[in-house]
Amino acid sequence: MAEDPTAAMAKECKVRLKISDDTIFEVEYAVAMQSQMLKNALSDTGTDGTVPLHNISSEIMAKVVEYCAYHVNAANTISEKDVKIWDQEFLKDLDQATLFNLIMATQYMVIHNLQDLICQTVADRIKDKSAEEVREIFNIQNDLTPEEEEEIRHENQWAFEEEGWPEIQEEVRLEG
Amino acid sequence: MAHDWEKMKKSNSDQVVDNVDAMNEIFKHLDAHSLAVASCVSRRWYVAAMDDNLWEVICTRHWPASGICIGRLKCVVNVMGGFRRLYVKWLHPLCTHSAASNSNTNSKDLDNNVVWTADQVHLSLSLLSVEYFEKLGPFATASCHGNSCTISRPQLLHKEQEKAEDGHYGKTFYKEDQRHPNWMAHFS
């Protein structure tokens, strides 16, 4: 049975990615195609050269490749339930800095499924928390003046009331 | 607010929590209540959480069953104050009341469990438009989110009708069929 030429290329072709510390990552073509950005870049230049990814570290690149490689293989062979279990394991020991770096990397490389997974994980840490708790978790400086903070809280009073038809304030105009 | 968004995007940080684009991606996964909390965290989070595209998703994710064509509606809702206003001012309290009278659902659960009925959506849209037209002065140019639009015909009709009823004109100036109840036709 003749092999599909695209599948053959996917198995044999390697794509070279040069990252921030000049390390070269060699990944299979099919794995690289998980990134929309690489897909576009390689369709223009072909697979012979090296694609520079200067703003991604080797630790993050390793994680991205691990995820994409698994999902390429899992595509038609592993049940959705098992893929989800793998995804949770993948996320398990990632610290916040790694999660954030993965968000930036997946935004840059345009890898939607990994970006959604990480963003959902971060969003879950925001849910059911107060603003002060969120600031502590993410180590965010509160740069709102007391007046601005009061206005915004009042604007969002509806979210904390069980019933009633609250007033909606005009949007706070923030300068700077 | 469009000005703040663009300004903050231009000064986007490498830090995710200060990067408006990145926060916007994360906020797409939040319910309305959490989005409201997020907007209280910092200036950049406020700007990111106020993106009306996020609120469009929150409003419309429960609409499919109600058969409303969202594409046509979007420009109209944007002119009348946006999806956040629609949600906060009308959809949320309307459906909170309905849910509260049926069960012990609180507002946080509401975001995840509710499916709006067609009647609730239509009523919310009607109330949004009534509120909007009440604010228009005669022959005023409406300005929302940096876009300008002139809504002269409906308000003119309304004002002229008022004048006619006050006896300003010798006879009733407008026939019944010219008092168009469907405001959406003006924008199609």
Unreliable residue stretches of chain B:
141-151, 168-188
Shape of chain A: elongated
Q: How are helices and strands ordered from N to C of chain B? A: HHHHHHHHHEEH
Task: Outline the low-pLDDT stretches of chain A.
Answer: none
Topology:
The complex is a heterodimer of chains A (176) and B (188).
Chain A lengths: L4 H8 L1 E6 L4 E5 H4 L3 H10 L4 E4 L4 H17 L5 H13 L3 H14 L2 H15 L4 H8 L7 H10 L21
Parallel strand pairs in A: 1-3
Antiparallel strand pairs in A: 1-2
Helix pairs in contact in A: 4-6, 6-7
Chain B lengths: L1 H9 L9 H8 L4 H7 L4 H7 L2 H9 L9 H10 L2 H21 L4 H7 L4 H18 L5 E4 L2 E4 L2 H13 L23
Antiparallel strand pairs in B: 1-2
Helix pairs in contact in B: 2-4, 5-7, 7-9
Q: Your description of this structure?
A:
The complex is a heterodimer of chains A (176) and B (188). Chain A has 176 residues and is mainly alpha-helical. Chain A has nine helices and three strands, in the order αββααβαααααα. Chain A has helices at 5-12, 29-32, 36-45, 58-74, 80-92, 96-109, 112-126, 131-138, 146-155; strands spanning 14-19, 24-28, 50-53. A three-stranded mixed beta sheet of chain A has the order 2-1-3. In chain A, α4 (58-74) crosses α6. The model of chain A has no long low-confidence stretch (mean pLDDT 84). Chain B is mainly alpha-helical and 188 residues long. Helices cover 58% and strands 4% of the residues of chain B. Chain B contains ten helices and two strands. A two-stranded antiparallel sheet of chain B has the order 1-2. The longest helix of chain B is centred in the middle third of the chain and has 21 residues, at 82-102. Classes of the chains: A mainly alpha (176), B mainly alpha (188).
